[in-house]
Write a structure and sequence with these properties.
mainly alpha; 8 helices; binds iron/sulfur cluster
Length: about 190
């Protein structure tokens, strides 16, 4: 879809919309389940509460997505999520409720295996959802700068200067601070 022309009709057919004309570029380090959840946080807070499909439906979709991101997703959740999204879309009074489910439906349409990995394998392929990842240091890439040991709030990282470091997964709270500061991109989430 990289070459898809950007006009109202093609974007709508692809499950998107023109909106205010902005475009966000994301890569494989963005979790699509977490991204769908992010949009639902926004729309459920923006819902004025006048009609039940939007008021209750966005909350229920958010609850399901939060459960999936936390590793508490169950078989049947995706079907329920789709059912809710379509109901909210068709029964809401105004454009907010009418478009709130779009990110969920579109993410499910193009990235369903990522949702399934969270539910069936309790794994976040993008390495974002904290309850579903284990952080580790690649010994070949680590240059032993020790910066990660300085930022780790629970002292879970050990290693000598100029030697590969290690993460104690039993102590690690998966806050991601070490990953952000590592200058050689040696820390990854599995
Ligand atoms: S769809 Fe519109 S009217 Fe209904 S609760 Fe949402 S924001 Fe309010
Ligand atoms: S993710 Fe956070 S807690 Fe875990 S090793 Fe890195 S800095 Fe420490
Ligand atoms: S910050 Fe990265 S390169 Fe430096 S010691 Fe830690 S893992 Fe190794």
């Amino acid at each position: 879809m990289f070459d898809m022309p950007v006009d109202y009709e093609r974007l709508a057919a692809a499950g998107s919309m023109m909106g205010s004309g902005g475009m966000i570029v994301l890569d494989e380090r963005t979790c699509m389940v977490d991204l769908a959840r992010f949009f639902l946080v926004f729309t459920s807070e923006e819902s004025c509460g006048k009609c039940a499909p939007c008021r209750e439906g966005t909350k229920q979709m958010l609850r399901l997505l939060t459960q999936i991101c936390d590793g508490r997703g169950k078989p049947g959740d995706l079907e329920l999520l789709e059912h809710l999204a379509k109901s909210v879309k068709s029964a809401s009074l105004c454009g907010l409720g009418g478009s709130a489910p779009n990110p969920v439906l579109t993410a499910l349409r193009y990235f369903r295996p990522e949702f399934e990995a969270h539910i069936q394998h309790k794994r976040c392929p993008a390495g974002v959802c904290r309850n579903l990842i284990t952080l580790q240091v690649d010994a070949k890439t680590c240059v032993g700068c020790t910066r990660c040991t300085e930022v780790c709030p629970v002292h879970a990282i050990t290693g000598e200067r100029k030697s590969p470091h290690q993460i104690n997964v039993n102590l690690c709270t998966r806050c991601g601070a070490c990953r952000q500061i590592c200058p050689s991109d040696a820390i990854s989430a599995q």
